Structure formats: structure tokens, C-alpha cells
Amino acid sequence: MRRVNTAVLSLILPFAGLAASAQPADLNADQLAQPGVPNQQTTYEGHRVVQVVPESGPRLARVLELSHHVWSERVGRGPIDVQVDADAFAALQAEGFEFTVLIDDVADLVDRERAEILARSQRARRGGDAIDFTTYYPLADLIAFVNQLANERPDLVSLETIGQSVQGRDIITMTITAPGDASNRPQIALNSLIHAREWITAPATLRLARDLVRGYGTDPRRTNLLDQVQFVITPVVNPDGYVYSWSNERFWRKNRRNNGDGTFGVDLNRNWDINFGGNGADPFTNSDIYHGPGPFSEPETAVMRDKLTSLPDLRAHVDTHSFSQLILWSPGFIGQVVPRQDELEALGTDLAQTILETNGAAYTPQRAIDLYEASGTFSDWSGDALGILSYTFELRPAGGGLNSFAPSPDLILPTAQEINAAYLHLAEATAIPLRFVLPPVSSLQFDQPVSYEFSVLSAVADPSSAVSVFVRQGDGAFVETPAQSLGNDRYRVTIDPTVCGEDVEFYIDALTDTAQRVTYPIAGDALPVSIPVVNTSLVFNDSFATDLGWAVTNDGALTDGAWERAAPAGGGDRNDPANDFDGDGFAYLTDNADGNSDVDSGATTLTSPTLDASAGDATLTYAVWYSNTSSEDTLDVEVSGDNGATWTPADTVTSASTWRERSVDVAALVGQTSQLRVRFIAADGDPQSIVEAGIDAVRVTIDEPCPAADCPADVNGDGVASPADFNAWIAAFNANAPECDQNADGQCTPADFNAWIANFNAGC
Ligand code: 0X9
Ligand code: ZN
């Protein structure tokens, strides 16, 4: 219903000359911030956000002078959104400014966020963890979680207090890498919470730490990375500011330096020795972008500088901020020379794509200077001084609005996940010689050779030469199979899963053009990729190229958007898919039109024909597209074992603007049935939201037991073909026994001798 304006770019801009009022000293701030419970703050009492239209330059200057924070993304001609206290509001009225009130009560907005966090922290099931990812946590809990991970895996995590903040709080860096000698492993540096109010950034780095620590040894990708890379993570660069943003002033940005003139705080992202004091940084102590008395005047920046400079082989750095959904790289100011510009752009674009593929969130990759000029920033410094690939990430949400300052805790987990995907990609692309991208194959079909395609990518070397795959089934030796080069870093190998019930195991071995051998997984034959070989039959397979008898029913309230079988028409420009999933062109889609149309006000249901899934335990798989601008609704999948008389919930799909393949264990829900039906329900409960759904590639498969091994060369019937079977064949020949007939011509002749040899060589 509502059009989304994707072009809006809204960043909390700390503008030159704006007067952040002097703050009271935050005595006892730690005591005020009880774990899980944000405390009362009173500094926004009577504050409003108003949109003013100043008629002239001097009148604009007066508005800036009166305002506490600027909320709009650009200051200049035209309307400007500012936060004002009661006195400033009265002054605007008295001085005849034209304005409209956008937020009548900023304190109430902050109170509501606080109540939400309190309620959530009471509900949170942390399962023994100091934090989860369902709400925000105060400093003590973040640090407790850092310590917890280090205690959990002291072999992977080492902690270092790199220094202290202005107020004497520890600044802690976690180095995470595999056990063993790490001295040859390059480093990746990541940090968050340099700006106090950007709360959502800490869960991003802490989620990375958590998943690395808990994925080591079980998740091949993270295992592989930790075996080759050291992650140097500083989750809280500005602990004083963070504590203060909980205890006193929610939208505090800077550190808590006492500037000695009644004002507090230096902007830690203007304090670096790169174009220090230039455009986009302020000399005024009360400004939100006050650069401080000199480069590295603040201990928070000085200790980060020392830590990063001490790393012998640092490859990349991300300074994590919020909000606006941006991947930014140097130049950050006019005149900055950036030797690795092309690399920054190519990789930055890949990072945005990786994020998009995770949960469907669109982050814009761009040069920082194209956002606005800033001087003395962390990532401009790290890229320049250390010669590495450096980025500033601006996390969710995308645009302005009240929640940009205080994003819903619902955004924490998806944001942490997508940023993690980007951090991992960055590490792989910059710190390991080759990157292997394998298709997600969960099982192989017995006796059906498959062409397995994968990529070997490289940031530092071209794997044009030998790429081999070492494959085995069972306990035998790995057999080398050369991979066929398809060009563009793509390779193909054919795997023949001959033994049902035994995993196919393999590892890839590649030679870089600097003659370095690299295997995936890194441990090679000691910890190969392992894929189960199963006996599955396909009982239903619908790509929607033709009509196989699906029914569409709509509830009375639906005004628009019913399911229809069609080729996608929306062009992918408005949360709907640009293409179908499986490539035949067709899918079932809701409101398949280009432009402003989607599911509205009710539900539309797509129901399958009756399917026979009685031959064994059935699995239903389907590709689903479900995008919804409101988090209230879901796409619900239900199955029936009695031809639609009763329905059982099977899956709940939440919003993401991308195709995803999902599967449901039908047998666990409705048993083995000849009366299987499945239905997909797309609803729009919130009429303001945009709901776009698609279904494609619906399949029902049945797992069948492995057939008894057929092994003619195993003449003595001991389960294996071995040289002992040669004597057994001679005996069978002499006795004219049925096992003698190795070529299956119904006779026992000397020709069966060669057939036995062939059968033996074919293996069983
Ligand atoms: O202004 C900043 O420090 C960063 N944005 S934030 O809203 N998180 O404060 C971005 C700085 C990026 N660098 C340039 N734009 N030059
Ligand atoms: Zn920031």
C-alpha cells in the first residue's frame, strides 16, 4: 500500500556549530546502570523535535544555536529537524520562527524504549549467557560476555586490556584464533561502540566473537578462518560514553572528557591524526564533532592506535557505527589520496552484496566523502597509516524516523547476522590466500553421479593452476580427481556416490600462483567435508511451469494481492522478486504487477493438490520469497494428512527480500499419508505494510532404506570384495554354483573369470 522511498539517506549528523549543552558530571554512573535495567534520565524533560524553516542564513544559525541535537541529515536551505529544550522552544515561538512539532515529548520516546528494554531483559532466555540478542545490555553485561567467551575457550580467546578510558574504565581487546602457533596468521581488526549512542553496534562484534568461539571445530567455515586468521575485536572503544548513554543521556555520542569549560566530550571519530581539524570536525568544545585539543589527545583513540600499529600483519579494519545501512571507505575528505581505491570499491561492493544475501537488507556501498566530509576519522587513519583495507560500516536502520536513534531490539539479531556475514567475507577476502565457495549440498543421491561445482577465489593469487578434489567413500584412501576448470574461478568435479548409507568425504587442494598449497577444509584429509549418501525418491516436483492443480482461496477482507501462477512482472524494484527461483520462469506470486500493489488487508491462501506420501517418511521443500515492511505478519505454511480436513502449522517465514529454500519434516507432523496437502498463507494484518510473497520449486521427497548391497565380486558373501573372493570364485566355478556367473549371462563359463576381475575392480 505505502510506497517505500529507498532513496532516503538519513544519518544522525553531528553538525558544525551545533550546541550540545553542557552536561552534569556523571558521578556514580556505574551504580546507576544496573544490569539489564536502564535508569531514569531526566535531561530530555520538556524536549521536543521540531521542523523549522529558517528564512535566511542568520536565522538558520540562530536555530542551530538554540538546538540540542540536529535530527535531519542535511543542514542548509529548506526545512531542518532539531531537538530543542523547553526554553529554546519558547524562544523559537517568541522570535517568530515557522515550525511544526514532530515529536512532542522526546523524554517519553526514551522512556518507552527503556520500558521495552526492561520488559525484554526480564523475558530474555539467556541460557547461561551474559547477553542474548533480543535486547540491549549495559556495559557490565557486555564485558561479562567477553569474559565468558574467554573462559569458555581459553584455547581460542585471549583478552588484553589495551588501556583505560578518560574515566579509567578498561578497554578490552579479544584476539580469537585457533590453538597453536599463530605468529604467521594475519590479523583482522574490528571494533564497535566508538560512538556511545550507537548501541546496536556492540551486538554485531559480540555475535562474531560468539559464533567464532562456538563454531570452531563444528562449523567448517569458521574453523577454516580461525585456523588461518586472528580476529582482533574491541567491542567497546568508548565505555564511558556508553555508560553515560544508559544513565544520563540516551543520545550521547562522544567520550566523557571534561573539557574544563563546563562542557564534556571529544568525538572519538574526529580525534585521529589524519587531516586533523579539517572539514567536518569542530574546534568548539560543545560540538558533537569536537575534535579535541590535538590528534590522539584521548586515551581511547591512542590505545586503539597503539594496538592496531602493534599488529605485524594487519589486513583489514572495520569501525562499526550506526545508522543508515552504509559500507563506507576512504576518501573521507577532499584531497585524501587513497592508493587502494579500486580494491576498496570492489570489496566494499561485495560486502554490501553479502549483507543483502543474508537477510535481504540493502546497504549502500560508497565513498565516505560522498556522504559528507569528515576529518580525523578512525578508518581514514587506519587505511592511510597502516596501508590496509579499512571500512566504516553504518548498521541498521536505513532511514530517519524516531527509531533510528533507538532502533527496535527486533533489529539486533538480523543486523548482527548480516554484519557477521560481511566481517567473515572481509576476513576471507583479505587474509586467506584462497577462498573456496561450495554449494550447500545436504545429501547426495545414491548411485547418481553429480557434477559438483565450486569456486576457488583469490584476493592475492590466481589459482589458475592445479585444483584437485580428493574423494572417498568409506574407509579407503582418498582418490585424487582433477577438477575441470570452467573459467571465472569456477571448477567442476564429478562425484559418484556408489555406496548408499556411507558419507562421501572430500577435500579440495589448490596451488596458488605463488606455489602455495592450500586445502579446503584447511585440515585436509584429517577433517574433510562430509556429505551423507541417501536413497531418496521424488514423489512430487512442481516448478509451476504448468498447472498441477493448486487452488487459491482468499478471505473476505482481502482487497488486493491474491496468489497467481505467473512469471515475475515487478522487475524486483519494490520488494518483489525479479525472477523465479528455479529458472523455468514461473512461480506462484502475490499481486504480480509492476508498481504499487501488494497483498492488502487480508489473507490469500495457496493450497496444493492431494499428494501421495505414503511410501515412507516424506520431506517437503520449497523456495519462498516473503518480504514485509511490518514485522507483525509472517507467511505461514501448513500441512494436512487428511486431505485438508485438519491443518498443522509447519513453518513460519519472516521477512527477507530474497528467495530462500526451506524444508519441513512432513512425517514428523502428519505421519506417512496418501492424503498430503500443503498450503501457503500470505496475510497482511497491518494495512500500512507492503507484503510481497512468492513460492517456487515445491518438492516432496521420501527417504527410503538403502537397498541391500549388490556386490557380485563378493563370492564368499563376507560383505566385501577381497582377493579371498578369487579362490571362492574358483570353487564356485568348479562346483558350477550360481555365484560363478559373474557376467549375468545365465551360465557359468571361463568368460566369468574376466567378469569377476572386472566386478572386483569396479568395487562394491
Ligand atoms: O560522522 C561519523 O563519524 C560517522 N557517522 S556517524 O553517524 N555514525 O557518526 C561516519 C564517518 C564517515 N566518514 C566520512 N563521512 N568522511
Ligand atoms: Zn558513529
Poorly predicted segments: 1-41
Beta-strand share of residues: 25-35%
**In order across it, which strands form the biggest sheet?**
5-6-8-7-9-12-10-11
DSSP summary, beta strand count: 34
Mean pLDDT: 87
Shape: globular
Structural class call reads alpha+beta
> Compute the gyration radius: what is it?
31 Å
Q: Which kinds of small molecule does this entry bind, naming each only once?
A: N~2~-sulfamoyl-L-arginine, zinc ion
Distance between the termini: 61 Å
DSSP helix count? 15
- Largest sheet properties: 8 strands, mixed
Helical content stands at: 10-25%
Q: In words, what does this structure look like?
A:
The chain has 764 residues and is of the alpha+beta class. It contains 15 helices and 34 strands. An 8-stranded mixed beta sheet has the order 5-6-8-7-9-12-10-11, with helices on both faces. Strands 14, 23, 25, 26, 29, 32 and 34 form a 7-stranded mixed beta sheet that branches. Strands 24, 27, 28, 30, 31 and 33 form a 6-stranded antiparallel beta sheet that branches. Helix 10 (341-359) links the parallel strand 10 and strand 11 (364-367). Helix 5 (139-152) runs parallel beside helix 6, helix 6 crosses helix 12 and helix 10 runs antiparallel to helix 12. The radius of gyration is 31 Å and the shape is globular. The chain starts with 28 loop residues before the first helix and ends with a helix.
